[in-house]
Give the backbone structure.
Amino acid sequence: MKQTKSEKSKERMDSELVNEVKRDFARRQEERKPFEAMWQLNINFCMGNQYCGIGANDTLDDFDKQYFWQEREVYNHIAPLVETRLAKLAKVRPVMTVLPASSDENDVSNAHMCKNILQSVSGRLMLTDLVAKATYWSEICGTVFYKITWNDDAGALLGLTNEGEKVYEGDVNVDICSPFEIYPDSNSSESIEACHSLIHARAYHVDVIKKHWHVDIEGEDIDTFNMDNSQLSGGLGYISHSAKMVKMTKHDQVMVIERYEMPSTEFPNGRLVIVAGNKLLYNGDLPYQNMQNGERGFPFVRQVSIGQPALFWGGSIVERLIPVQRAFNAVRNRKHEFMNRMCMGVMTVEDGSVDVENLEDEGLSPGKVLIYRQGARTPQMLSTQGLPADFHNEEERLIREFLNVSGVSDLLSANVSQLSNLSGVALQLIIEQEDMRVSSSGEYIKFAIKEIGRQILRFYKQYATNKRMSKVVGNNGANQIYYWDATSITSDDVQFETNSELGETVAQKRSMVFDLLRAGLLHDENGKLSNAMRLKVIEMLGLGIWEDALDNNTLQIEKAKRENLEFLDGKNPEVVEIHDHDLHISAHIAFMLSGEFDKYTKDNPSIEKRMLEHIRMHKKFKKLSNLALNNESI
């Protein structure tokens, strides 16, 4: 079938666009090579391959031994310091809340709904685990990215098409992108928002391309980074293995290049171009309205470890530790070489007086008979002085420098006699100073979590057109179900409930709770501690949620709240004798007076009629029970 002139013109334009994107990608690869080499070096030093460096062409080169007797062992102090920083940063998991758009009761109710949506989505996506994995990347390489997208094949199943294909409601998806996958238009941009365009490049198997884009593309061999063993370390007479980062070849792969362009005069809604191999998979507007006021932008959130001015890429503490680690390895290995000479000895022999080959092969084993030529000078051992104190002094100085550069240390390793002379206030000040250096990295994690929460709400605002159900755990441990849609999201002002997670320990939190109890700030106007507050105190003390300890009034209120949700589902809960009718009536009336109830009854007025009838039944049962009590008293 012959192609028309317009089809040939479109094919030519698509081919030119593909070539232009690939040229742009190659340029960005070349510009980013120095940073990529530094990331590889950081990863190798963390893994234990510490006898390597960056060559002239921004490639990673291994260093060989200069002599066969040279000690080349690795004494890795970088890895435990990074692990300590990760353990401190693991405390930074703030609870997100949403501020209402106004003081209107409906906006306040919707803001509470948005908070529950974020809580439900965070649990489904396992956001805590994602942040932990991303923080590992940012601590080693300095930068990591979260990619927030909409997955049409996620969420609840809605039904089947005429062709038998499953249709889902769709849901938000969050992926972690290492810095090796992201290419900005300029490495001097200080943020994602400062970039005019951004490329995300990742290798996929040909089957994934066909399933997702319905296009057949011939695969090729692509080099990717992987871990392997290195035999470059060791000492005299032995070889040590350490992990190293190397390039491995994957087969039947296709590099998918996604170029995101910000809105401009030529493209008011921005542009997204997706290229795989030599084919154009997509060319159109930016799909997501994920910026403020419904504007379109990049679906990426950047997280750095150490911010750097006028640079897109963040800094890593590993970069600063590498010179100290090299010096420490050198001191330790020279020290052991010196000790080898002391233990094994260095012998002087007259030329031709002994069998030198035998002496080199066997050495001076215990009981060895050393035969030398008659008349020659007796072989002698060179006298070796003791180990100089400079080795020990330099080693101690480098250990202190490790702690000073990394900003973390372990108080348990300090001298007990020194700590015993300090007061509790002084120890608290030391702990706060310990966390101060790590707090800047913790703030960047908070910024990233906050932006992820905002974009999640904006995605639902754009795509959640049908009623959805979210399940969250309430204050008393019971599951609470919420029904919502895009109209429920009236605010995306995500904030945090607390701001001091990094510096707070479990003991500090418990001490604060007891101080509040002693001050009477948790008691009601009658000076008593309510049952609900008592359960909250137990939860804050870290003793878990005592579901079995719930009093009867709390159980009655929770039951009434569940009945409220059943009315929204079209059910008619039954009124029984065991209900506390006063509590049930109060809970039902409070729900009917809320703005959330008005929103649901607007399209379904029968809900109000059924609830009013339900309340009348409670009043009838209450009246009958009162009459029965009066008759018994008579």
Notes: The longest strand covers residues 238-261. The chain has two domains: 10-319+438-454, 500-633. The radius of gyration is 34 Å. Residues 5-47 form the longest helix (43 residues).
